[in-house]
Design goal:
Strand order of the largest sheet: 2-10-9-8-7-3-4
Largest sheet: 7 strands, mixed
InterPro entries: Aminotransferase_I/II_large, Asp_trans, PyrdxlP-dep_Trfase, PyrdxlP-dep_Trfase_major, PyrdxlP-dep_Trfase_small
Keywords: Aminotransferase, Pyridoxal phosphate, Transferase
Helix content: 40-55%
Distance between the termini: 57 Å
Strand content: 5-15%
Radius of gyration: 22 Å
Family: Belongs to the class-I pyridoxal-phosphate-dependent aminotransferase family.
GO biological process, one term: aspartate biosynthetic process
EC number: 2.6.1.1
Bound molecules: pyridoxal-5'-phosphate
Structural class: alpha/beta
């Protein structure tokens, strides 16, 4: 018998496929705007100077070994990571009611958070989670994998290329009490559209009123504004206001540690006792899935978070990345509106936040950029701003202009 004859062929991951097609393209002016990874002005991956310094320090440390880490991760890493997202003055940390566990980057944090909810959350009816429409595509699979059904709430308004705030608030109001809402903490992927502080407060009001649970995904702290504290504002405000919540944290983008798979899950409990129990269960789940997490990325980030000099250097590196992206936004806006006088409004390019911009291009126009200009982007019209640089931005603007005319 052919044991696996009944296995259907799965489609390739669209983003990884896009990169593979880009790689084999021999056109000299090709541009990759698909992948969500930072590139410098020469289109090259950037190893942050602070990571080079921390790697050197690790290399020179005669006491490092390769023993197993504790199940919940490197303690200096998880405590530093909690302070980074929740704030050094967080009441939840001071009251010792945060449970922090090291995870396989942000994806692993999302998975562990989802798995924990599927086991222990008191769902008011079927196991469901509300995701923003649109969202990072992997969210759907991550929740389905643990038996939680993903539903969506309206988040993005194609007419304004901005937040559909009224519809979002209406979804919060009409969902059953104690529903779980996934929220992007900052730099929403794929739209680059974040709520304002005032809108976050309205969202918090609605969540408190209905007893909803906030499942924060924070993959871009520092990337949105260049300021680690500013980008954590919504999370900290929700903690302050007592919205029940957890946070998934990734160091892939803000530390350029994509392949090191370093992240954390923070569950904010109502008391020390609750946090202790949650932690014990997260340890049981982690033990059965990965036994214990990998050390290298945790050591690098722990060094940076606990050494004031390295921490300052990191903040500077983050500003370097965020400012380059913001510059590219301004230049693209200038080229489209002043030089090419491209039809349509383009102010959303500068208003959007973080690594991505939702251009407003439709699937046909996006495909035309790929086919005619060798400019690779996802067909929802999302571009990674990090793929643009002083050498290719004019070529991109010129071709964007052609496909919308
Ligand atoms: N969440 C969002 C919204 C993302 O965009 C990403 C990465 O693209 C992740 C989580 C997880 O990334 P990683 O697992 O590399 O930390």
């Amino acid at each position: 018998v052919d044991t696996w004859n009944n296995v259907p062929l799965a489609p390739e991951d669209s983003i990884f496929k896009l990169t593979a097609t880009y790689k084999v393209d021999t056109f000299p002016q090709k541009v990759n705007l698909g992948v969500g990874a930072y590139r410098d002005d020469n289109s090259k991956p950037w190893v942050l100077p602070v990571i080079k310094a921390a790697s050197q320090a690790l290399f020179n440390d005669p006491n490092l070994d390769h023993e197993y880490l504790p199940i919940t991760g490197l303690p200096e890493f998880t405590s530093g990571a909690a302070r980074l997202i929740l704030g050094g003055d967080s009441p939840a940390i001071a009251e010792n009611r945060v449970c922090s566990v090291q995870t396989i980057s942000g994806t692993g944090a999302n998975h562990l958070g989802a798995l924990f909810l599927s086991r222990f959350y008191d769902f008011n009816g079927p196991k469901q989670v509300y995701l923003s429409d649109p969202t990072w595509a992997n969210h759907f699979a991550i929740f389905r994998n643990v038996g939680i059904d993903p539903l969506t709430y309206k988040y993005y308004d194609p007419k304004t290329i901005g937040l559909a705030c009224d519809e979002f608030l209406a979804a919060l109001a009409s969902a059953p009490d104690r529903s779980v809402f996934l929220l992007h903490a900052c730099a929403h992927n794929p739209t680059g559209v974040d709520p304002t502080r005032e809108q976050w407060n309205q969202i918090a009001d609605a969540m408190l009123q209905k007893g909803h649970y906030a499942f924060f995904d924070c993959a871009y702290q520092g990337f949105a504004s260049g300021d680690l504290d500013g980008d954590a504002w919504a999370v900290r405000e929700f903690v302050k206001r007592g919205v029940p919540m957890l946070v998934c944290q990734s160091f892939a983008k803000n530390a350029g540690l994509y392949s090191e798979r370093i992240g954390a899950l923070h569950v904010v409990g109502s008391s020390t006792e609750v946090a202790k129990r949650v932690r014990s269960q997260l340890a049981v789940l982690t033990r059965s899935e990965i036994s214990n997490p990998p050390a290298h990325g945790a050591r690098l980030v722990a060094l940076i978070l606990n050494n004031p000099e390295l921490f300052e250097q990191w903040k500077e590196d983050i500003r370097t990345m965020a400012s380059r992206i913001i510059e590219m936004r301004k230049e693209l806006y200038r080229l489209l509106t002043e030089e090419f006088k491209t039809p349509g409004t383009w102010i959303h390019i500068v208003n959007q936040i973080g690594m991505f911009s939702f251009t407003g291009l439709n699937a046909e126009q996006s495909q035309a950029l790929i086919d005619k200009a060798h400019i690779y982007l996802t067909t929802n019209g999302r571009i990674s701003m990090a793929g643009l640089n002083t050498g290719n931005i004019r070529y991109f603007a010129e071709n964007l202009d052609k496909v919308v005319r």
